Automatic annotation (TrEMBL):
Its EC number is 1.1.1.44. Pathway: Carbohydrate degradation; pentose phosphate pathway; D-ribulose 5-phosphate from D-glucose 6-phosphate (oxidative stage): step 3/3. Belongs to the 6-phosphogluconate dehydrogenase family. Catalyzes the oxidative decarboxylation of 6-phosphogluconate to ribulose 5-phosphate and CO(2), with concomitant reduction of NADP to NADPH. This is 6-phosphogluconate dehydrogenase, decarboxylating. It is an enzyme of class 1 (oxidoreductase). SUPFAM superfamilies: 6-phosphogluconate dehydrogenase C-terminal domain-like (SSF48179), NAD(P)-binding Rossmann-fold domains (SSF51735). InterPro entries: 6-PGluconate_DH-like_C_sf, 6PGD_dom2, 6PGDH_C, 6PGDH_Gnd/GntZ, 6PGDH_NADP-bd, 6PGdom_BS, NAD(P)-bd_dom_sf, Pgluconate_DH. Keywords: Gluconate utilization, NADP, Oxidoreductase, Pentose shunt. It catalyses: 6-phospho-D-gluconate + NADP(+) = D-ribulose 5-phosphate + CO2 + NADPH. Residues 180-467 form the 6-phosphogluconate dehydrogenase C-terminal domain. The active site is at K184, E191.
Length: 473
C-alpha cells in the first residue's frame, strides 16, 4: 500500500470508529494504540477495510508510514494523555507536519498546545467531534480550530467523514487555535441542558402524574414527530420503552439515579462566567448532575422532610409540557449562542454562529429540526444578539410562555425539582423586564462600599445621601 494520508493514535471507542470511517471513505489510515494488542484486535475486526489500514506498533513506525506533510489525529483520553502523545510525536515530526487533537479538550489547553507547537513550526488543530460511537463510525459533526492552511490539507478527509445535512458536510473551520474545541464545549453544555429538560419532564410525569416509563416514552415518540423532533427526544422515548432483560422491569427503573459527567458542561459554565455571561440553564443541568451524585444525602433528606405536605396545582397537560419543553430549549440555546458570541469577541475568533447551528444539524448529539431554523435566524441577524427575540423564535416563546410558567409553578407547588426549566423561565422574565431590581443592588453597593451609581436623569451625583438614611427598626 502507498503511504497513508493520515495517522490516528488511540483506538478506543471513538478512535477505532473514526479510523473505520476514514478507511471506508477511501483514505488509507495508519493507526497506533498504546496497548499494541488493541491495534491487533482492531485490524482483525476491520474486515475488508483492513486493506486501507496500516497498523503501527511504535510511534516511529506510525510516522514512517505517513505521506508528507504528515497529519496525525490524537483520539485519547483528554488531559495529560494528550500531552504525553504530543511529546512522543513531535520529535519525530518535521516543520509543516500537523497534529490534530480530536478529543474533548479544554480549549485553553488547545491554545497552549497550538502556541507550543507553532514554536516548533508544527501545526496543531483542535477538532471537536460529536456523535458518540455511531457518529464517529458513520458521520459525526466536526468543529475545527487551527490555521486555515493546515485545515486545507485535511479538509477533503474531514468533509468526507462528516455527517451530511442535505448533502452539505457538518464540518466547519471556526477560527484559530481553540475555536473548534470551544464550539464543541458549548455544544456539550447545550447537550447537558437539553438532556436535563427532557429528564425534568420525565420526572413531572413519573412523580406528578404517576405515569409508567413506557407511557412517557410513547409521549416522547409522539413529540418527536413535531417541532421537538431531535435525537435526544427520540432516544429518550426509546430508552423509556426498553425493558431490563434481567428483571423485565423498565430499564430506567433499575438504573441508579446518579449522573456522570466528564467536564465539558462545567467548562462551558466556567468559561461563560469568566466572560461575564450566565448560562443558567446549562449551569442548572450541571448542578443537577452533581446533586444527583449526592445519593446518600438525598436519601437522608427524603426521610427528614418526608412529612412536608404539598398542595399541587393541576398538572400541565401533555400539550403544555411539549410547549414548555420547546420554549425552555430555545432559551437554553439562546444562552449557548451568547456564550459563543462573547468568547468570539474575547479571543478574536470571529466565530460564525450560524455555521455552528449548521454543523449541529446532523451527526451530533443535539441534532434537531430546530437547528435549521436557528441557523436561518442567526443569518438574518439576532436582535440584541438574542435568539429568543428573533421573529420565528419570539413567536414560539410567546406561544409556550404560559405553558412554561404553568410547568414551573406546578413543579414548585408539587415539590418536584425542575432547575433547568425554572432557570429558563427566570432568564426569560428577566430579559423582558425593562426596569429590573438592580437599582436597589446599586444603592446597596453604594451604601456599604461607595461604589456609586448612574442616575436615570443623567445627573452627576453618583452617591446616595446615606448619612441621612432612615432606620426602620
Ligand atoms: P476510550 O476510553 O474508549 O479510549 C481511550 C484511548 O486513550 C485508548 O486508546 C487508550 O489507550 C488511550 N490512552 C489513554 N491514555 C493514554 C496515554 N497516556 N498515552 C497514549 N494513549 C492513551 O475513550 P473514547 O474513545 O471514548 O474518548 C476519546 C476522546 O474522545 C476523549 O477525549 C473523549 O472525551 C472524546 N469523545 C468521546 C465521545 C464518546 O462518545 N465516547 C464523544 C466525543 C468525544 P490504551 O488502549 O492503551 O489504554
Amino acid at each position: 500500500m502507498s503511504q497513508a494520508r493520515i495517522g490516528l493514535v488511540g483506538l478506543g471507542v471513538m478512535g477505532a470508529n473514526l479510523s473505520l470511517n476514514i478507511a471506508e471513505n477511501g483514505f488509507p489510515v495508519a493507526v497506533f494504540n498504546r496497548a499494541g494488542s488493541v491495534t491487533d484486535a482492531f485490524v482483525a475486526s476491520a474486515g475488508a477495510l483492513s486493506a486501507r489500514i496500516v497498523p503501527a506498533k511504535t510511534y516511529e513506525a506510525l510516522i514512517a508510514s505517513l505521506a508528507k506533510p504528515r497529519a496525525v489525529i490524537i483520539m485519547v483520553k483528554a488531559g495529560g494523555a494528550v500531552d504525553a502523545v504530543i511529546d512522543a510525536l513531535t520529535p519525530l515530526m518535521e516543520p509543516g507536519d500537523m497534529i490534530i487533537d480530536a478529543g474533548n479538550a479544554d480549549f485553553h489547553d488547545t491554545r497552549r498546545r497550538e502556541a507550543a507547537l507553532r514554536e516548533k513550526r508544527l501545526n496543531f488543530i483542535g477538532m471537536g467531534v460529536s456523535g458518540g460511537e455511531e457518529g464517529a463510525r458513520h458521520g459525526p459533526s466536526i468543529m475545527i480550530g487551527g490555521n486555515p492552511e493546515s485545515y486545507a490539507v485535511i479538509r477533503d478527509i474531514i468533509e468526507a467523514i462528516a455527517a451530511k445535512h442535505e448533502g452539505a458536510p457538518c464540518a466547519a473551520h471556526f477560527g484559530p487555535d481553540g475555536a473548534g474545541h470551544f464550539v464543541k464545549t458549548v455544544h456539550n453544555g447545550i447537550e447537558y441542558a437539553d438532556m436535563q429538560m427532557i429528564a425534568e419532564v420525565y420526572g413531572l410525569l413519573r412523580d406528578g402524574a404517576g405515569r409508567r416509563p413506557a407511557e412517557i416514552g410513547a409521549l416522547f415518540a409522539d413529540w418527536n414527530k413535531g417541532p421537538l423532533k431531535s435525537y435526544l427526544v427520540e432516544i429518550s422515548g426509546r430508552v423509556l420503552g426498553t425493558p431490563d432483560p434481567q428483571t423485565g422491569k423498565p430499564i430506567v427503573d433499575v438504573i441508579v439515579d446518579m449522573a456522570g459527567q466528564k467536564g465539558t458542561g462545567r467548562w462551558t459554565v466556567i468559561e461563560a462566567l469568566r466572560l461575564g455571561q450566565s448560562p443558567s440553564t446549562i449551569e442548572a443541568a450541571v448542578a443537577a448532575r452533581s446533586w444527583s451524585s449526592e445519593k446518600a444525602t438525598r436519601e437522608e433528606g427524603a426521610a427528614l422532610f418526608d412529612d412536608l405536605a404539598s398542595d399541587p396545582l393541576l398538572i400541565p397537560s401533555d400539550r403544555e409540557l411539549e410547549q414548555a419543553l420547546l420554549a425552555a430549549k430555545i432559551i437554553a440555546y439562546d444562552q449557548g449562542f451568547k456564550i459563543l458570541s462573547a468568547a468570539s469577541g474575547e479571543y478574536e475568533w470571529n466565530l460564525d454562529l450560524a455555521s455552528a447551528a449548521e454543523v449541529w444539524r446532523e451527526g451530533c448529539i443535539i441534532r434537531s429540526a430546530l437547528l435549521d431554523d436557528m441557523a436561518a435566524a442567526i443569518r438574518e441577524g439576532l436582535p440584541q444578539g438574542q435568539l429568543i427575540f428573533a421573529p420565528r423564535f419570539a413567536g414560539l416563546i410567546r406561544e409556550g410562555a404560559r405553558a412554561l410558567r404553568h410547568t414551573v409553578s406546578y413543579a414548585a407547588s408539587a415539590g418536584l425539582p425542575v432547575p433547568a426549566f425554572a432557570n429558563a423561565l427566570a432568564y426569560f422574565d428577566t430579559m423582558r423586564q425593562s426596569r429590573g431590581t438592580a437599582d436597589l443592588i446599586q444603592a446597596q453597593r453604594d451604601f456599604f462600599g461607595a461604589h456609586g451609581f448612574a442616575r436615570i436623569d443623567g445627573g452627576a451625583d453618583r452617591h446616595g445621601p446615606w448619612a441621612g438614611a432612615v432606620a426602620h427598626s
